[in-house]
Amino acid sequence: MADKKITSMNTTTTPAAADLMLVVVDPSGTPLNKTVTITNLANTVANQNKTGNTVQSNVDGVDTVFKQYDGIEVARIYDGAVVPTLTGSGSPTLSAGTGFGWRRRILTLGSGSNSADLTLTAADSGAIIYVTPTEPVDLILPLVGTETGIWFEIIFAAKVNKAFEIKTSGQDGNDNITLMNQYVGPSQNFDVGGSDHDVLYIANANIGTRIEIINCAGGAAEKWHAYVRSLGSQEATIS
Fold first, then answer.
1. Which residues, in sequence order, are CB contacts of 12 under 8 Å at separation 6+?
2. Pairing of strands 176-183, 187-191
3. Would you say 220 and 145 are in contact if contact means Cβ atoms under 8 Å apart?
4. What is the largest CA-CA distance in the chain?
5. Could you tell me if 73 and 175 lie in one domain?
6. Residues 95 and 78: beta-carbon distance below 8 Å
7. How far apart are alpha carbons 181 and 235 in whole angstroms?
């Protein structure tokens, strides 16, 4: 074993966390051969390369891609050198800056043959709820404490003459949802609510109707602000 080169040893493709690796300690001073577990090596490297408040690519001219476990991309940091393909006979031009892009999470909701309640959590913030309310649907917003800024968008996938309601958690009479309506006409109206308007209601919403709702205050008196863009004459109300 002592006379065997590392390059001639058998290879493993499934190392365990407790397996050992050979390291040379203090190679520029008094080098010593020692072993380290894969876990300890990984932890040491991670601690020495903490991102802190900065995430930075180690290669220029390429996008930095964020992927989930199965390899599907969910977000990326754009490099200005990476641009989409542009063609045309009239010498079109295209330049690009840097930025951050991501795909929104879609929660596709079908109410089935009876009424349904969808209870959201803070972890769902930013999601689009794509709903077909074949039966009445209640969307229950998260309970908000000190961490505000939670927001959702609702888009109707089909026009169905059923009720759709957005409710604050618990409906205790202390929360408030303000409302801005834009609908075909062109028409618009608003309702700033009060200290106890914690339910938003709309029925028979046309396909593509969109509701954006964002939380700006939590605690005992949550404050939510809703913006409804109706692709029809249907308007939302609050109570």
1. 19
2. antiparallel
3. no
4. 87
5. no
6. no
7. 6
DSSP state of 141: P
Q: How confident is the model at residue 51 (pLDDT cuts 50, 70, 90)?
A: low
Q: Are 133 and 160 in contact (CB under 8 A)?
A: yes
Percent of the chain scored above 90 by pLDDT? Answer: 73
pLDDT in tens, 5-18: 777 888 888 989 89
99: containing domain: 59-85+94-103
Q: Helix (H, G, I), strand (E, B), or coil: what is residue 200? A: strand
Where residue 82 falls (left for φ over 0; alpha for ψ -120 to 50; beta otherwise) is beta
Tokens of 49: 């390369």
Q: Domains in the chain: how many in total?
A: 2
User: Alpha-carbon distance 113 to 135, whole Å?
Assistant: 6
Query: Does a structural domain hold residue 31?
Result: no
Taking 3-state DSSP, the helix, strand and coil percentages for the chain, each rounded to the nearest 5, stand at: 5, 40, 55
Cα–Cα dist 7/193, whole Å: 74
Going 194 to 197 to 203 to 208, the CA torsion angle's sign is: positive
Whether a cis peptide bond, with omega within 30° of 0, leads into 186 is yes
